[in-house]
Every structure is written in structure tokens, then in C-alpha cells.
Amino acid sequence: MLTMPEPSQREDAIAQIRALIAAGSYVPGDRLPPERELIDHLGMSRTTLRKALEALEREGTIWRHVGKGTFVAGHGGNGSSGSFTKLSRQLTPVRMIQARLCIEPALAREAAINASAEAIIRMKLARDRAASAPTWADYETHDDLFHRSIAVAADNILLVALFDQLNQVQRAVASGNVVRKSERPPEEHTSFAEHDRIAAAIESRDPTAAQEAMRRHISSVSARLFNEI
Question: pTM of the full predicted structure?
């Protein structure tokens, strides 16, 4: 007998699918991988996946056709993806990083203060999946989820919504400016250790260390990808 996924599982699944769409540079009309591949790739049950897809279809992010598959819709659930695309075209990578530096270190600080035990477990799981990702697309999906898990751990729904909007724009900016030279992140990829330090500071309930670790991480990403900041 199938059991209904818990709300937290469903929300996590929705976030994972959104991150997959963003990291994979899907555009309206593109077909997503079949359910079996999504289950294996995202590590979730079929029930949880289907409930997440139903929610995304209701909000207009995807549409499904029996016998043909699941497709990215022409607009997001709030009808704002067009405005995000327009905004991303007006932003330089350095401006994008400056926005992240204003917001994400503060989120890490709040997460160190407010994170529940469950939120910390989910953050560490996303960190570990990013570190073991077999491709850059997989890494970017789980990197998104790691950063989002920190926003969720801050325990403020408005901050999560703000992060989601910021992340949509930053992925659009990065997709046109980042060129990968390998199939997957190398074992010495600096973000792995940086993620470890962020997670450790949050788990240790050290808001100052968490804020500084996130600031250093974002600055490091900027220097590596864009030679800025």
C-alpha cells in the first residue's frame, strides 16, 4: 500500500525538481527525463515524485501529456519567469555575486540560530550528494539544494521565497557565462571544503562563523568562475 509523502518530503521534492530544471538549462517545451530516471537521479519514491509533479503542474511550472511525458511550461507558477529572464539579461556576473553576498551570508547566520535537527540533516545530505555528483549538471542540482536547505533552515518563509527568486536569476546569469572544462567537479573542487565549513558552522550553532564561511564561499565561487570580487 502506497503512503502519502510527508509535507516536508513533498516540498523537498518540489525544490529538487525546480533545481533540476534550472541546472539543466531547460526551456519552455523541453521534456524532462522519464519518471524512472527522475526517481533514480533524485533519490525519492515514486509517490513523492508524483505528488511533487502534481504540485508543479498545478502552479504552471510543468505540464504533462499521457504517453508523451512531462514538459517545462511556458511560465512559472507565479507567471514571473519572463521577468526573471529579462532581469538576468541586465545583470553582469559581478552584480549577481554582489546580490548573493548581501543575502546568503545572512541566511547562513539565521540558519545557525534557527535550524532544526531535521533541517541540519537535510542540509548535510544535500552537501554529500553535491560532493559525489557524477556530472556538473548533477552537482549544480545538489549545490542549489544545499544552498536552499540553508535558506529553509533559517526558518522564515519570506527569506525562502527571496532565496528562490535570487537563485532563479543567478542560474540564468551563470548559464550564459560559465564554461565547464570537465565532465564532473574534480575531487579537489574547492566548493566541497567550503560547503563542509558552512555546514559545520551551522551545525555548531555558530552564526558568526556560518556567515563568514558563506561569504568566503560565494567570493571563492566568483573568483573561480568570473574572476571578479
Answer: 0.70
Contact 62, 14 (CB under 8 A): no
All domains in the chain, ordered by first residue: 7-72 (1.10.10.10), 81-226 (1.20.120.530)
Q: The dihedral of CA 192, 193, 198, 202: what is its sign?
A: positive
Is the per-residue pLDDT at 205 higher than 50?
Answer: yes
- Length of the chain (residues): 229
CA distance 163 to 226: 21
What is the β-pairing status of strands 62-65 and 69-72? antiparallel
